[in-house]
Specification:
Elements (H helix, E strand, L loop, with lengths): L1 E7 L6 H13 L5 E6 L17 H5 L8 H10 L2 E7 L7 H18 L6 E8 L6 H14 L3 E9 L3 H21 L6
Parallel strand pairs: 1-2, 1-3, 3-4, 4-5
Helix pairs in contact: 1-6
Length: 188
């Protein structure tokens, strides 16, 4: 079983990194093969909506840009489960995560459908007031729905709840891996 953990924050020692690490520690208690992908360390350009909005992504399922996008996309295709962890900026995901998901959505929705049915966990980490965490999770889930992916849980981690949410993420990681193996399915 392979699980890809895709995360985005410029801070490698902040709340988002701590949430990712806690979830990973739960996954590590299982037999899961984990692929950790830190988007902020990669070169991923934004979508240019070429070809009047539907360029090579619609025709071939590939983006013509030569950056790290294709490599990360392939890792998600090969994964049995996907975890998205993002810092919250302006009630939304980080710019790095947005650039990646925008291009992914075009390749998936228009042509490939490789990720359809993949079971995902969404984690949004807000270090400020925390007011944007729920909206950020909603935005992530709406993006996944376009691709036929399925959010199995949506976890807000904010300054107020981090003392009890961070330890809970260990159990969430372990449970997620177990549910992927058992074939747990949520109908909706």
């Amino acid at each position: 079983m392979k699980i890809a953990v895709l995360w985005s924050s410029p801070n490698t020692d902040g709340l988002t990194a701590a949430a990712k690490d806690q979830f990973l520690s739960g996954l590590q208690k299982t037999d899961a093969k984990i692929e950790e992908i830190h988007l902020n360390k990669l070169q991923i350009e934004h979508c240019e909506a070429c070809g009047r909005g539907w360029g090579s992504c619609a025709v071939t399922g590939n983006c013509w840009k030569k950056d790290d996008f294709s490599n990360v996309y392939e890792k998600l295709v090969q994964a049995d489960g996907i975890v998205l962890v993002s810092a919250v900026y302006w009630h939304d995901i980080t710019e790095c995560m947005k650039a990646f998901l925008d291009r992914l959505r075009r390749c998936e929705t228009a042509h490939n459908h490789f990720l359809s049915g993949k079971r995902c966990i969404l984690i949004a980490c807000a270090g400020g007031t925390g007011l944007g965490a729920i909206e950020c999770l909603h935005n992530m889930e709406e993006t996944l729905k376009h691709m036929g992916m399925r959010a199995y849980d949506r976890i807000p981690v904010i300054r107020y709840n981090k003392e009890y949410m961070l330890p809970a993420l260990v159990a969430a990681g372990e449970m997620y891996a177990e549910r992927i193996v058992s074939g747990f399915d949520m109908q909706y």
